[in-house]
Amino acid sequence: MECKISWMGKDGMAFAAETGSGHLVTMDGAPEGGGRNLAPRPMEMVLLGTGGCTAYDVVMIAKKSRQDIRGCTVSLKADRASEDPKVFTKIHFHFVVTGHDLNPATIERAINLSHDKYCSASIMLAKTAELTHSFEIVEG
């Protein structure tokens, strides 16, 4: 895996990122840090990637478990250390899984497998942060 990050110029703290798969993402800093708040902060991207990683796992595991899953959202709330390095110290994941006749035990198992075995991002973040999760199932 690879990527390239390029500073977008002397008048701010925006960066263009190109992934190894050819996708472009922009990041920017907070105004108090010289940015102009034009794009997500780099640490927000870390949190976004973690949410995407674990949601991907939950959907794949539910499908392989023959669950009639039709939707999955995960909301993350994180706390960071107050001093540098401002690592994540707590992250709570709340999943809303939509489907027909979903088995709660199977969905909880999918979430646990993601956090304990498959999601590289959350497993890395667990080195500095306390990870917790909750979920709800919506029939639909």
Automatic annotation (TrEMBL):
Q: Cross-referenced InterPro entries, in alphabetical order?
A: KH_dom-like_a/b (IPR015946), OsmC/Ohr_fam (IPR003718), OsmC/Ohrsf (IPR036102)
What domain of life does the UniProt record list for this protein's source?
Bacteria
Q: What is this protein called?
A: Protein YhfA
Q: What is the lineage of its organism?
A: Bacteria, Pseudomonadati, Pseudomonadota, Betaproteobacteria, Burkholderiales
Which gene codes for it?
yhfA
